[in-house]
Amino acid sequence: MRKYLYFGILPFLFAMQNCTNNPNTEYYSIDDYATVEKYDSHVHINSLNPAFIEFAKASKFKLLSLNVAAPEYRPIEEQQDVTVAQRNLHEGLLSYASSFHIENIDDPLWQKNTIEYLRQSFKKGATGVKVWKNIGMEYKDSAGDFVMIDDPRLDPIWDFIEANNKTLVGHLGEPKNCWLPLDQMTVANDKEYFESHPEYHMFLHPEFPSYQNQIDARDNMLAKHPGLRFVGAHLGSLEWSLDELAKTLDKYPNMAVDMAERISHIQYQTIQNHQKVHDFFLKYQDRILYSTDIVFDDSAPADYLIEQAGALWKRHWAFFTSDQTMEAPELKESFQSLHLPKEVIDKLYHSNAKKWFPAAIN
Prior knowledge:
Layout: H1 2-21, E1 38-45, H2 51-58, E2 61-66, H3 76-89, E3 94-98, H4 110-124, E4 128-131, H5 134-137, H6 155-163, E5 167-170, H7 188-196, H8 211-224, E6 229-232, H9 233-236, H10 242-251, E7 255-258, H11 263-283, E8 288-289, E9 294-296, H12 302-321, E10 325-326, E11 335-336, H13 342-356
Parallel strand pairs: 1-2, 1-9, 2-3, 3-4, 4-5, 5-6, 6-7, 7-8
Antiparallel strand pairs: 10-11
Helix pairs in contact: 4-6
């Protein structure tokens, strides 16, 4: 068995070495940012103001906007109205994923009503469905139990999504930092978020389901629905260890991940082992989608939000394409950028979005 595994991994090792050392391997430069067609596969467009989508177009970005049942956002029905209106105004630039209410899951009509809502969403052009951390971390049913993502009452919903060739996007659980005290968290953006949102800081709520409970429930759901196309938002809440993420991707071939708001965790791991991170992206280049979690709404001046988004996009492009020492506001130490081959960049930024959301992205 050991000999089989050894020879089985040799082609992969040679492929990585050839890709890294081959003088004919092509790379993008930082300057190519302005001309390469790109997708940001995880944003939230919650405004009818067209300014951000127009800016994205000028930056060669197309967008996937995710409806989400977060309390600080518009109701999901209004989010859908906004994204459909924006998509119709900006043909070919914006796709969206719908969502649904988990409340009233005990109601005998809940499954029927939810499926009908999603049916109408698909008719309006939704390319998938987003579920949020309120499943597993917030909502309790009438018996007082947390509703987890593998709850049997949700199975007909997943079956309907699969039958319609749509994609399920899951923000399930949180970064592992969520279960640590603030001073032990690895990146500044997690510290800032959980300090501002103590209701989601699970270190303060040991009575809630654990981190492992969240991961196990997600994996159990995937095991029950092997044909369901699934994108784990935020690196599938396995951002803390690319080794663990690799094991999960190997186990569930219908799963990919987006990098929304977790690129700092990737950068953090390059400080410990740059080569491991680089090789991970080579091996799983078909399973990772570039994404940011940018929110565009009316809470701040549009010019400010656009400036912040543009700076973030350019900083990420430099991290993935260039070969330089960098700094990021989320980290205390500098790190080396990944300098990924052009072929890999094209997948992260473009073709993987089309592969994992085939119903509407073009």
